[in-house]
Amino acid sequence: MASTFDCSSVLPKTFRKAHGARASLFAVCCIAAFTFGAGISQAQNTPADVPPVIDVHVHAMDDIPGAVPMCPNTAKFTASDPKTKEAPFGWVQEECTPKLYPAAKGEYMKDVLAEMERLNVTAVVFGDPRSVQKWKDAGGKRVIPGTAFSNGIQPGARVPVDELRKDFTTGGFKVMGEIGLQYEGLSPSDMSVDQYFALAEELDIPVAVHMGTGGSGRANISVPTFRGSKGDPLLFEELLARHPKLRLQVMHAGYPMIDNMLTLLQANSHVYVDVAGLIWSYPIKEVNHYIQRLVEGGFEDRVMFGTDQLIWPKLMAYSISVIQNAEYLTPEEKRDILYNNAARFLRLDTSATK
Ligand SMILES: [Zn+2]
User: What is the dihedral of CA 234, 238, 241, 247, to 10 degrees?
Assistant: First the structure.
């Protein structure tokens, strides 16, 4: 049966309750409701010498009760009438073969880590420290830990800055993210969170901020505090002026605000983007067009691959295939997006993997 799943509406009732403090970071990244859509190129077993990939956008989560199969790259949004009972998402319901399936109960992390092994992926895994540590313990060197400053599900609830400092100085965390201020209707330059970005600059920790995607076609219903206007990449300008050494990952590449994204990239060479989420949740022609604009705009070396991996273990393989199948990219550009750019941004030691 064709069905849909909306993270933003379902998770607050299930995942968030179960995970408590600092769990909302995952939920803010659920950018869409998902329906059955275009065909999926199913991943095959790959040889042991498959080139390495870095996925800069994965969430430390477990399986979600009630999650349903999904078709990526849904073709369009549908209109609705407020006089009717509206779904919390606006994605058109489509069929595809094969669908992406949720993991079996209790198997999600194991399945994703197996996929990372098979696909030779190292991933930045974001979440509350306890959840991320679980992934780190199980995934070892393939997991680069990330955490940030939202504290629970209430907008405005923050982790004490000294606690976050410990996470990055002694706790082994490497990236400050996912920062989901847009879901609270806040600009990244809002002074109420400046101390956290100041900390990242001081410690030379890269920051990863959700920017752009997230309406699910019905933000007015599912996430009333979400503001599309707070996903404008140019909202970083004041923050970056205050913190000129900050290294910034604009998650979801500020989609769909390409002109302002290019403007920010032109103005600040510490800014990188990831293509996570958008790569599988918008029409494929549009996805390719957006990435092509970034590359043809001259920023091929600042585009990083990311999945926004959640719920469906094969989502990572699917998302990698979108880059691998991109006719507008050269083989060198594909390698840069899938690996080299993130290795540079994260300052990884690549001597053993290149
Ligand atoms: Zn996000």
Answer: -60
